[in-house]
Amino acid sequence: MNRWTQLVQFDPCPGDSYRANSTPIYQTATFAQPSMESGCAYDYSRSGNPTRHTVEKQIAQLEQGRFAFAFNSGMAALTALTGILQCGDHIIAGDELYGGTHRLLSQRLPQRGISVTWVNTTDIKSVAKAFTNKTRLVLIETPSNPLQKITEIRLLTDLAHKRDALCVVDNTMLSPWLQQPLLLGADIVIHSATKHLGGHSDLTAGVIITDQQEIADKIAFIQNAEGAGLAPFESWLLLRGLKTLGLRIEREQHTAIQIAHHLNNHPLVKKVYYPGLLHHPGYDIHIKQSKGPGTVIAFECGSHIATEEMIAKTQLFIKSVSFGSLNSLISLPSCMSHASVPENQRHFTTNLLRLSIGIEDVDDLIADLDQALSRSYQKK
Ligand SMILES: *Cc1c(COP(=O)(O)O)cnc(C)c1O
Q1: Model's pTM, two decimal places?
Q2: Given 43, 92, 97, 221, which residue has the most CB atoms within 10 angstroms?
């Protein structure tokens, strides 16, 4: 089946006698068991729920994996992932991961005796040097956020596998619509479904996807043992958002490409970070391993004061963290999404702006950026 078809053609409620066209929200904690001895599909919603299973199956398919597990946030999914590690284990992590992931790895894991080395994963030699005989996991985001640095997934997984480690890709930035890391050798894919997968800024959710039975068994155990599985209503919202994943991303990306080129040619803009621009480092690798540059653009113009003024002057861009929403957003990563990353570990300045492009009209968005730019930077 083509992926456009897949998004809407699936069994919305396996076994349901009324055959609803929208998956029912099985808002129940418990399920009656036909007899005390015989096993049944569901007994308790923490362990399994039909609405959650339907969305998990859909996301597994989209990422081309056999198993998916939905959690109540991206951070809950990442936390569950670290549950497969033991005291003494070591992680190699990209040096520009999401701020919350940085906080989890640097402030929670040491308490469990798990150590982390931060590495620029765009440089495979640095990654190779970071391995110890305790390294179990390599965790990356590509493109990274906010600088959109590109890591070659195939190269990294080959290296990880040679050293008996697992390669995990946080694929939140592009979604499976634009990049499918399992097909490039990755062992596990993670998502903050709060972003593109949900797509409407109306829920928080996270997902772990894998093709490997052994990993799936561990994650299923953790999901049940720790109880952070996604609730029925949120599962339904996520399922509804997913149906328009292709429509949303294609439109948002089409607009983002035009805006990135516009900014790149704008006299008041100093530098644009977007993997769809020819000059972007890793452009060739990105083209090879993905289906597009995505919907997030970072750029720099000038002083911090003017940058804050520019944000204040935009009218259509909501001043907000996150990305992958229907509305266009503008943010200052240094004091918003990446505020929890210590300043000396950040690779960008307080002047860096980040845009997340929504489904509005491209000319309206460009006109808004232009007026905000000329009113904040020109006079400086
Ligand atoms: C937002 C985000 C997370 C965290 O997800 P939540 O749903 O906010 O808990 C993890 N990784 C990336 C890349 C993100 O953008």
Answers
A1: 0.97
A2: 92
